[in-house]
Write a structure and sequence with these properties.
GO biological process, one term: fatty acid beta-oxidation
Number of strands: 9
InterPro entries: ClpP/crotonase-like_dom_sf (IPR029045), Ech1-like (IPR045002), Enoyl-CoA_hydra/iso (IPR001753), Enoyl-CoA_hydra_C (IPR014748)
Oligomer: single chain
CATH topology of the domain at 42-260: 2-enoyl-CoA Hydratase, Chain A, domain 1
Radius of gyration: 21 Å
Bound molecules: ligand LH2PNOKW
Helix content: 40-55%
Strand order of the largest sheet: 1-2-3-4-6-9
Pathway: Lipid metabolism; fatty acid beta-oxidation
Keywords: Acetylation, Fatty acid metabolism, Isomerase, Lipid metabolism, Peroxisome
Subcellular location: Peroxisome
CATH architecture of the domain at 42-260: Alpha-Beta Complex
Length: 318
């Protein structure tokens, strides 16, 4: 019985290795070409005013915040387009990993203080309870702009250079992995503009850094913190010397993840997010139910066969 299984696994592995050799050579070629020129051609199937989407390598999408003249400040178009973009990436079978970066001088300067869209919603009524009803509908929509990153089952790598302010912290706290450049700095700035952060920082940031006292210090004082501190508290996992190096490292990692089973990677993200918000027994139960189905995936067989044949597996689109 085992020798039969071994033969089928070997045959499967041989088929997989042939197509892998082809695709890995192509992937290496595109890695070299794309690392420095990630912002070159935009992906025409993604058309937005405030975001540019590129396809720098197989199964990798690069979303670039694209209002450099305003330091990528978040205007009303941006809040809407983030949901549209990440909902589309979630469904795109040619996307297995996303890199999120900012164009121009800074990653983002946070909420667009010159865009009166938000103030129009607040001022739309005289009566405070009517305003409150409107805001009660509007705020969850703003929150969805970053929850869409977390709901997208593809891992999202945030690549931050220079300033990452206010809404920028909310945004990257919803990402899976965070890299930054040596010159990066961060600021939970909301109290300075008179508001309690309400699009994810207060919920996600403390869970990432696991330090309640430090979280409160950064939230209440709005003091800047720099790349070395961001690394030491675990907010970013890598600090790279400059933006070129950071984008190359992000692309290398994205390509590594993209070559793995999308069933396994996306299942892992879904289970990590679920487990963060539930008890260990609840998380284990959810994980068990998930794998009742997912362990039957052809990807499990392909991965085992590749291991036995000392080849690299090639996984079907998901
Ligand atoms: C319900 C919504 C939930 C969301 C909440 C989010 C809240 C927040 O994000 S609070 C934080 C808001 N952001 C800020 O307070 C940052 C404001 N900007 C700055 O302090 C500086 O611009 C900065 C230190 C980032 C950079 O300074 P630098 O001298 O290098 O550049 P500037 O000349 O200031 O900026 C270049 C042009 O960009 C415009 N700009 C910068 N930030 C914003 C912004 N947040 N909103 C709108 N516009 C921004 C700036 O005015 C300059 O434009 P121009 O003068 O026409 O050249």
């Amino acid at each position: 019985m085992f020798s039969g299984l071994r033969t089928s696994l070997r045959l499967l592995g041989q088929q997989a290795s042939k197509s892998f050799l082809k695709s890995s050579t192509e992937q290496n070629k595109s890695l070299v070409l794309c690392a420095r020129a990630m912002s070159a051609a935009a992906d025409k199937s993604y058309e937005f005013k405030t975001l540019k989407v590129h396809s720098p390598a197989e199964f990798v999408k690069h979303v670039e915040l694209n209002r450099p003249e305003r330091l990528n400040a978040m205007n009303m178009d941006f809040w809407r387009e983030m949901v549209e973009c990440f909902d589309k990436l979630a469904e795109d079978e040619d996307c297995r990993v996303v890199i999120l970066s900012g164009s121009g001088k800074a990653f983002t300067s946070g909420l667009d203080l010159a865009d009166n869209g938000l103030f129009q919603i607040i001022m739309a009524d005289e009566d405070c309870s009517r305003k409150a009803f409107k805001m009660n509908k509007a705020i969850p929509k703003f929150q969805e702009s970053f929850s869409a990153i977390e709901k997208c089952p593809k891992p999202v790598i945030a690549a931050v250079h220079s300033a990452c302010i206010g809404g920028g912290i909310d945004m990257i706290s919803a990402c899976d992995i965070r890299f930054c450049t040596q010159d990066a700095w961060f600021q939970i700035k909301e109290v300075d503009v008179g508001l309690a952060a309400d699009v994810g920082t207060l919920q996600r940031f403390p869970r990432i850094v696991g330090n309640d006292s430090l979280t409160r210090e950064l939230v209440y004082t709005a003091r800047k913190f720099y790349s070395d501190e961001a690394k030491s508290i675990g907010f970013v996992s890598r600090v790279l010397v400059d933006k070129d190096q950071m984008m190359k490292t992000a692309l290398d990692m994205a390509s590594t993840i993209a070559a793995k089973s999308p069933v396994a990677v996306q299942g892992s993200k879904i289970n990590l997010v679920y487990s963060r918000d539930h008890s260990v027994p609840e998380g284990l139960d959810y994980n068990a139910k998930w794998n009742i189905t997912m362990l039957q995936s052809e990807d499990v067989m392909k991965a085992a066969s590749a291991f036995m044949n000392k080849t690299k597996p090639v996984f079907s689109k998901l």
